[in-house]
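Fill in residues.
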């Protein structure tokens, strides 16, 4: 005997499958567009990332990009998230160490390397190179996730009574602000060479450790 409901079940399944396929296609297309925009960002800087130029690289209409991202700010947000992912990968590649200072220095050098090798992403995320874009709550949460290795290390050091500062957020900002300052000054052309910037970064890092821990064996 034929199930009278089988047709409707098959129809519902077909609709669900079609909707899922369409969503998957949209997500794949969105990722491809973000990667194209990221390539333009790295190759030519933030001024090159326009909806028109991304569409040209993708060989698609600008309408598709506007439909998926809205204005340029929407595309900038996805590039920001991509940058957070790259920064997170940089930190995650650093092996953990028993010594707070050794592990902390290695994480700080990973941050330096990210700023230098992914300078366009860095400028977008932390340098304000996209004037139209300001990080929203979701973007800031992605930043916090990217910094989780440093945050976790500092939290453990506070718990063990190793640091002078017991406020976790303040301690992380005490680390981040001066290190960012050196990278930002260098990328902005205010330090004459990468070698000079690296020396300043090393010195700043030792000062940060001294201010947090009170000693610096490598300072």
């Amino acid at each position: 005997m034929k199930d009278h409901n089988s047709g409707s079940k098959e129809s519902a399944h077909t609709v669900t499958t079609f909707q899922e396929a369409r969503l998957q296609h949209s997500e794949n297309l969105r990722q491809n567009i973000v990667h194209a925009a990221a390539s333009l960002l790295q190759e030519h800087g933030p001024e090159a990332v326009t909806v028109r130029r991304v569409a040209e690289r993708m060989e698609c209409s600008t309408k598709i990009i506007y439909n998926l991202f809205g204005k340029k700010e929407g595309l900038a947000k996805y590039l920001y998230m991509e940058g957070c992912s790259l920064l997170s990968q940089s930190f995650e590649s650093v092996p953990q160490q028993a010594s707070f200072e050794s592990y902390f220095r290695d994480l700080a050098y990973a941050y330096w390397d990210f700023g230098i090798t992914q300078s366009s992403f860095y400028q977008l995320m932390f340098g304000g190179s996209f004037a139209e874009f300001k990080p929203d709550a979701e973007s800031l949460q992605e930043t916090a996730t990217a910094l989780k290795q440093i945050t976790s290390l500092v939290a453990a050091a506070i718990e063990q009574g190793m640091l002078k500062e017991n406020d976790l957020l303040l301690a992380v900002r005490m680390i981040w602000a001066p290190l960012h300052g050196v990278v930002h000054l260098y990328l902005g052309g205010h330090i004459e060479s990468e070698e000079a910037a690296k020396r300043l970064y090393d010195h700043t890092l030792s000062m940060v450790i001294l201010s947090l821990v009170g000693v610096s064996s490598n300072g």
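The chain has a mean pLDDT of 86.
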